[in-house]
Amino acid sequence: MRRPKYITKLEQIPQLSDEERRELEQVKQNFAFRTNEYYQSLINWNDLGDPIRRIIMPDVEELFEWGELDASCEADYTKVPGLEHKYDSVGLLLVNDVCGGYCRFCFRKRLFMDENDEVVKDISQGLEYIREHDEITNVLLTGGDPLIMSTGKLEKIISEVRDIDHVQIIRIGTKIPAFNPFRIIDDPALLDMFKKYSTPEKRIYVVVHFNHPRELTKDAIEGLDLLQQAGVITVNQTPLIRGVNDDPDTLAELFRKCSFVGVPPYYVFQCRPTLGNKSYAVPIEEAYQIFELAKENCSGLAFRARYVMSHHSGKIEVVGLINSNIIFKYHRAANPADTGRVMVFKRNPFAYWFDDYQEAVDHHSFGSPLA
C-alpha cells in the first residue's frame, strides 16, 4: 500500500523560511498540525495565497481571539460518552480523534487537544443508546476521520451498527479521499467491507469533504469511483472559506467537478465561529451571495446544495435576501416544534453567525408549517 508520509513538524517542510517556522510554531502550540506528502504536493508554493496551503498550513491569524472551541454547543447534545443525539432520527458517534490532516478552520479542533475527553475508544454505551432509541434511523460516524482507522476496527463498528434493525442509513464523514486517496485505492479489504454492509435496502453514505476543485486529482477521483463501485453513495459538503472557495467561479467549479464524478453537492456551511477561525470566515450575507452566484454557473445536480449554519438550535438554512431583510429557515431543528420555521431579520452585513442577528435586531418568526 502506498502510504504518504505524515508530517507533523514544521521542520519537515523545506518551503518554509526559518522566520515563517518561528511564527507558525506559536500557532502549532495552540492548534494541532498534521498533513502528508501527497497533500503537500498539491500546494503551489510560488503562490502566497494558494488555497491548498490555506486549508492545511498554519496561519498566524489563527492566534486572533475570536470564537469558542465548541461553537455549536455539541456538548449539550451528548447523551453518553462519544454519542450525540440532536435530531430525532440521527445519532452521531465520535469514533476517533485523529484525521488524515487538520484543516485550519476545523470546527472540532478541540478534539485534537490534550484535554479532550469527548472521544472514547469504547463506544459500547453509544451503541446501547442507539439500540434503546428506535427513532434513530440514521447513524453518522465521525470524529476525527473514521477512514483513518484500520479497516478491521472500522468494520467492527459498522457491523455492530448494522446489527441494529431500526438503523437504515450509516453515514461516514471523511476527508480521506482528498487527503490520502491511496487509503482507498490500495486497500481492497476496505472496499469489500463496504460491499458487504452497503446493501440495496440499507446504503452506506460517504460524505466527503472537498473544499477546492484542485483537490479532485486523478487519484482522488479513482478513490471515489472505487467507493461508488463498492455500493457506497457519495456526496460532498464544504464550508465556505475565505481564501479557499469564497468566489463564485471557484465554488461553481467545485460544484460542477463534484457532480461530474458522481459526488453531488450536499451542504455548503457557514464557517462556524470556532476559536482561531476569524480569518477563514466570510460574513453570512456575503457568503450567501457567493453561493447563489456560483449556482448560476451550474446545472442540475451541481447546484442542489443548501447553504446552512450548524447552530446550537438546529441546522438553519439561509433562504434568501430581500431588500433590507434576510430570511432563514430551520432545515433541521433540535426542538421539533421549530421544524420548518421561517424567520425574517433585518440585514446585517457584519453578521458571521445566527446569534449576531438575534442580539442586534428585532425579528419576526412564522410558525412551523407542521405545527
The shape, in one word, is globular
- Total helices: the number is 12
Order of helices and strands: EHEHHEEEHEHEHHHEHEHEHEEEEHE
**What order do the strands of the largest sheet run in, or round the barrel if closed?**
3-4-5-6-7-8-9-10-11-12-13-14-15
| CATH fold-level assignment | TIM Barrel
User: Structural class from helices and strands?
Assistant: alpha/beta
Number of separate structural domains: 1
Alpha-carbon distance between the termini?
55 Å
What is the level-2 CATH architecture name? Alpha-Beta Barrel
CATH class: Alpha Beta
Q: What is the typical, i.e. mean, pLDDT?
A: 93
Rg over CA atoms, rounded to whole Å, is 20 Å
The share of residues in helices is 25-40%
| Stretches with pLDDT under 50, minimum 5 residues | 359-364
CATH-assigned homologous superfamily: Aldolase class I
Tell me the fraction of residues in β-strands, as a range. 15-25%
- Which sheet architecture does the biggest sheet show? 13 strands, mixed
- Tell me how many strands there are: 15
Describe this structure in words.
By secondary structure, the chain is an alpha/beta fold. It has one domain (6-312): TIM Barrel (Alpha-Beta Barrel), CATH 3.20.20.70. It contains 12 helices and 15 strands. The chain has a 13-stranded mixed sheet with strand order 3-4-5-6-7-8-9-10-11-12-13-14-15. α4 links the parallel β5 and β6. The longest helix has 13 residues, at 18-30. It starts with 5 loop residues before the first strand and ends in a 5-residue tail after the last strand.
Q: What characteristics describe this protein?
A:
371 residues; alpha/beta; TIM Barrel; 13-stranded mixed beta sheet; two-stranded antiparallel ribbon; 12 helices; 21% strand
